[in-house]
Design brief:
Blueprint lengths: L2 E6 L4 E6 L6 H4 L2 H7 L1 H5 L8 E6 L13 E6 L14 H11 L1 E3 L5 E4 L6 E6 L9 H6 L6 H11 L4 E4 L1 E2 L5 H12 L3 E5 L24 E6 L17 E4 L3 E5 L3 E6 L1 H18 L5 H10 L20 H12 L2 H5 L21 E4 L2 E4 H6 L10 E2 L2 E6 L9
Parallel strand pairs: 2-18, 3-7, 3-8, 4-7, 8-10, 10-11, 11-12
Antiparallel strand pairs: 1-2, 5-6, 9-17, 13-14, 14-18, 15-16
Pfam families: Peptidase_S8 (PF00082)
Organism: Actinomadura luzonensis
Protein name: S8 family serine peptidase
């Protein structure tokens, strides 16, 4: 019998506990996502080896058996919000990291969570607190935490991240965030963010815009249900670029636990995993072309090729890699070399400033415009973009590790 164990009114989160699962329950719970994204076909080409995905979130548990050895704990930009001695919960961040780079455990890694890019590394950068943490209100009202996301982006770039996943959301943007995103793109880093979970709060012909997803140059991801239609909660507006599964998504939680949940957070993490597969195969491919590979290869495209519900369609890892291979044939554009001074070496093997313009019907991704754009108002409160449905407690005993 399911029973509620906690509720967070601010995020509409309902947590339900369930009895321990059998050893095959977790991986079998991922089958639909694995099939939808065509991951087995994609893994013949790339598993994300050599790529670092920064997870800007609530922190990642490096000891989870499905992530062990793959997590580098980076800076915590929330220090001082929680009272001394209060450890971070790290639930949301661990969940997202597992969808991106979980490698499973047990014989052949066949148990537990398998991420989209199981050979990628994760850089954990803590930039939010979860609703249940005692410092949540302090974090979202104190001026000293106003630009933690911008600082987290710059930190992740300087630490060598190839992809940055931001399953976070707020209502207003700041000039510091806009500039940080421009900095990341200029260094060849792909940014992916959740479109938001306020799809039922429509304002005329669209749902609210959410940042950082709505910034130009960021891949904004909506969520689909099991029929690959827009999930009722998923924001719909012209910032949405692509969509991914976001309902009944199995993921890992701290302490070797497992959770099932829904949200644009999960969809964003899955897309970040695909971006990692592309960057592993084509490490110098510019962010606009990675975005083009994701959009051009999408399936379940809406009538006319684009709509505000699911963007250009539902991502597909195998097709995205094929499209990236085609784009990589245009070497100068794909590497950013055409926009780089040939007399100056590329620092750290990264491309120089990117001036590539990607035009796809209604969406134009221009990296240079990101850095030049002005401020868009004051920061709002940050929130994690997901709803937890139920937890699977310790699905395997220690002898299965």
């Amino acid at each position: 019998m399911l029973r509620p164990v906690a509720a967070a009114a601010a995020a509409g989160v309902l947590l339900l506990a369930v009895p321990p699962a059998r050893a095959d329950d977790v991986r079998s719970g991922q089958r639909q996502v694995i099939r939808t994204l065509e991951l087995p076909q994609a893994w013949r080409v790339s598993k994300g080896a050599g790529v670092t995905v920064a997870v800007l979130d609530s922190g990642v548990d490096p000891g989870h058996r499905d992530l062990s050895g793959s997590v580098l704990e980076g800076r915590d930009f929330t220090v001082g919000a929680n009272p001394p001695g209060v450890p971070p919960r790290r639930l949301h961040g661990t969940y997202m990291a597992s969808l991106i780079a979980g490698h499973g455990h047990g014989p052949g890694g066949r148990r537990g969570i398998i991420g989209v890019a199981p050979e990628a590394d994760v850089l954990s950068v803590r930039v939010i607190l979860e609703d249940e943490e005692p410092g949540f209100q302090e974090f979202n009202t104190a001026e000293r935490f106003e630009d933690v996301v911008a600082r987290g982006i710059r930190y992740a770039v300087d630490e060598g991240a190839d992809v940055i996943n931001m399953s976070i959301s707020k209502e207003l943007a700041t000039s510091e965030e806009r500039a940080a995103i421009g900095y990341a793109i200029s260094k060849g880093v792909v940014l992916v963010a959740a479109a938001g979970n306020e799809g039922d709060r429509r304002s005329g012909d669209y749902a609210p815009y959410s940042y950082p997803a709505a910034f130009p140059g960021v891949v904004s991801v909506g969520a689909t249900d099991r029929r690959l239609r827009r999930a009722a909660f998923s924001n719909w507006n012209s910032s949405v670029q692509v969509a991914a599964p976001g309902v009944d998504i199995m993921g890992a939680g701290p302490g070797n636990e497992y959770w099932v949940g829904k949200g644009t957070s999960q969809a964003s993490a899955l897309v970040s995993g695909i971006a990692a597969l592309i960057k592993a195969k084509y490490p110098h491919m510019s962010p606009p072309l990675v975005a083009q590979a994701l959009t051009t290869s999408a399936r379940d495209r809406p009538p006319g090729g684009y709509d505000t519900s699911t963007g250009f369609g539902v991502v597909n890892a195998a097709r995205a890699l094929s499209e990236a291979a085609r784009l990589a044939g245009h070497t100068e554009v794909a590497t950013g070399a055409a926009a780089h001074d040939p007399a100056r070496p590329l620092a750290g093997g990264r491309p120089g400033p990117i001036e590539v313009v990607v035009r796809d019907d209604r969406r134009v991704a221009v990296a240079a415009a990101v850095a030049a754009a002005g401020a868009a108002g004051a920061i709002g409160s940050l929130g994690v973009m997901f709803t937890l449905v139920r937890r699977v407690r310790r699905a395997y005993t220690s002898r299965h590790a």
